[in-house]
Amino acid sequence: MSEANIEQTPEEKALSGLPDDTPVDLAGVFRDSQIQEILDKLDRELVGLKPIKTRIREIAALLLVDRVRKSLGLMSGPPSLHMCFTGNPGTGKTTVAMRMAEILHRLGYIRKCNLAAVTRDDLVGQYIGHTAPKTKEVLKRAMGGVLFIDEAYYLYRSENERDYGQESIEILLQVMENQREDLVVILAGYRDRMETFFQGNPGMSSRVAHHLDFPNYTADELIAIAKLMLEKQQYRFSPDAEKVFYEYLVRRMQMPNFANARSVRNALDRARLRQANRLFAQHQDTLTKKDLVTIEAEDILVSRVFRDNHPDSNQTTDRE
Q1: What region does 260 belong to: left with phi over 0, alpha with psi -120 to 50, or beta?
Q2: Which tens digits make up the pLDDT trace of 157-211?
């Protein structure tokens, strides 16, 4: 039955008959929803990403207005909430998905403030009859909240006729259509691969209303992210170390397998390791608190990124 033919209740008819000049306290509804708290948290957690944050605010505004319209008995189809997040690793897709789940829950579009993050291995079986139970178990766990499928394109392998991923996709499609008021699905992955995935699965593409493309961070944004990460762990750069780490980022961004904030976190972990070894070897009897909290330039300069600065080099991130 179409939305246009749904019979209104007497209460809805009464509300929809309200005059056009009926006052609406949209600001009050926004304040009571406490969405601003989540948006502020997103600003604190993620440096940059202005287009993404703007889009999240737009979606939140749409849902807020839809909620107010319902309170006045104004009929409209339920908004489609399934989404696709594209971008390189370490650009904040999972963090944004978590905050999106909070927004949807506070506005009453999902029952649970829950994000179930999965990959192909959680959904697709290795033999006949194994995939459907795995997929249904994941859906059962995610129902009422948000299902986040990372690297979703791995569900579809057109080159392998005996692959079981298509069975999982078909189950997902049914749930995304028939139970869309009780589950929001967010697909994530590289942009080009997701485009290929949608071309091979037009049914999936038609069910996804919101596409958000996460840009790579700039070097300035990455140094800001690094300083925030260190601050949370009660470390800091010395002035020289900050300059050297910036140069490290400029070089590392030109090399393969760069993963934005994820690579920054890995690099800082190695810098802390080198700092600890330096302190243990040089200053066992004369340490101060400043020594313990400060990352020095020498803790970064020994990185392979400075020794092997070749953009075409195939160095892996765990050897930097």
Answers
A1: left
A2: 766 667 788 899 999 999 998 888 889 999 999 999 999 999 988 888 889 989 9
Model's pTM, two decimal places?
0.82
CA nearest 146: which of 175, 96, 183?
A: 183
Distance (Å, rounded) from C-alpha 189 to C-alpha 94? Answer: 11
What are the structure tokens assigned to 97, written together?
A: 């998905």
Which residue spans within the chain are E strands per DSSP? Answer: 83-87, 115-118, 146-149, 184-189, 210-214, 236-237, 294-295
> Domains of the chain, with CATH numbers?
26-214 (3.40.50.300), 219-306 (1.10.8.60)
pLDDT over 70 at 311, yes or no: no
Polymer length of the chain: 320
Distance CA 124, CA 134 (A): 7
Rounded Cα gap, residues 72 and 69, in angstroms:
5
Q: Could you tell me if 160 and 197 are in contact, meaning their C-beta atoms sit under 8 angstroms apart?
A: no
Place of tokens 């596409």: 211
Q: How many helices (H) and strands (E) does the chain have?
A: 16, 7
Distance from CA of residue 32 to its chain's centroid? 25
Handedness of CA 215, 218, 222, 225 (dihedral sign): negative
> DSSP state, 293?
H
